[in-house]
Structure formats: structure tokens, C-alpha cells
Amino acid sequence: MSTTELPASPEFKANHAELMDGVYRWQRHIYDLTRKYYLLGRDRLIEGLDVPPGSTVLELGCGTGRNIVLAARRYPDISFFGLDISAEMLETAAKAIDREGLSGHVLLARGDATDFNAKALFGRDGFDRVFVSYSLSMIPGWEKTVSAALASLSPGGSLHIVDFGQQEGLPRWFRSLLRGWLKKFHVAPRSTLREVLESESRRTGATFRFRTLYRGYAWLAVLGQPGRQ
């Protein structure tokens, strides 16, 4: 494998790609340093992937590659794939992966997480694990990302999601301050996330686990597809 970017899916949303490139053209250089203080629960998601040797893992909205690098260190016998709509972020991710000597384990591609062709982008029909970390709150039509992620799972695979909750156990002033800050980066916590995931789990026959973290600051969910019959 390599970190060479593959051609973008022709269906990806050009306007959103341009927006993300504009937002992160400079932010990507300090993104990981600053986000570690408030993108909580990412490491717990990675620990919970519980990937068997020889499996395949896809991250939707891979950004700077921070999560893929950590996951590849933790699961050295796994093939990783990363998808992002921002060329700027993918450039940073590719450099991070090469710097860590992980180019043999990771393949990156540019595309739209709401509508992507895994076969065309990665040469894969499905993945054993798919995870989405703090990306649904940035994606227009994010519900389609959930559907697309579930459709890309191999039988017996699982989808892992962590993102902002509704801060239901935190003071109102904190919620207002956080929402105002996130809005500057076109981020909006999804109030219907749990309902959408429950609905999708019923539609696909997937199991569903959901938990709140840090008094509702973050939500963590796992949807598991039935195995082969």
C-alpha cells in the first residue's frame, strides 16, 4: 500500500471540499495540537475497535491522519484506509503517515463520506471496521454518511462513531460557549445523532450500543452488522 492519493469520487461535493480546504489550509498545521483538548473520546474509540489480525479498517473524515496513525500503531497487522474531502488535510495526513513509517499499512483517498465508491477508491468491496471521529458534526447531509458507512461494512463488521453530544449534563453557559466556538469552524453537534443511529440499526438489522461520555460532552456509538450465515 501507499499514501498516494487516489482520484476523487466524481460525486463528492465540490463546494464543501472548497470550504474545508479554506478552513483547514492553515489550521491543519496546528490542528492536532489544539484539538486534543476538546475532541474527547477518540482514543477510547480506537481502543474499542478490537480489530482481529488481517482485518481492514476505514476511517471516514480522516483529517490529519492522527487517528489512523494511533490505530495503526495499536493494530500493526491491519490494513488501514482513510477518506477525506479536503485535499489540504490529506496532504498533512500523508506526511504524518510517511513520517511514522506506516505507508505500508495505510492508503488515503479523496472523496465524499456521504457517497463514496469503496471499490473505485480503494479496490475494496467492504471493511471489517469503519470509524468516524468528530466528522459527522461537520458534514452536510451527515445522515447519508451513516448509511454509506454501514453499506461499506463486511458481514460481521462494525461501525464506530464518536462526536459531540448535547452537553446535557454540563452548565448552560458552557454549552453556549462551546457552540459559539465550534460554529467558527462550521461544526454543529447533531442533536438527532442517537435517533438516526437507532433507526439505521433497525433498518439494517445491526446491533446498537450507545454511551455518553463526560456528562454528555461526547457521544460514543457502535453498530454491528450480522455475520455471514
Automatic annotation (TrEMBL):
The keyword Hydrolase does not apply. Signal peptide: none annotated. InterPro entries: Methyltransf_25, SAM-dependent_MTases_sf. One of its GO terms (biological process) is methylation. Residues 57-157 form the Methyltransferase domain. Keywords: Methyltransferase, Transferase. GO terms for molecular function: methyltransferase activity. This is Methyltransferase domain-containing protein. It comes from Mesorhizobium erdmanii. The lineage of its organism: Bacteria, Pseudomonadati, Pseudomonadota, Alphaproteobacteria, Hyphomicrobiales.
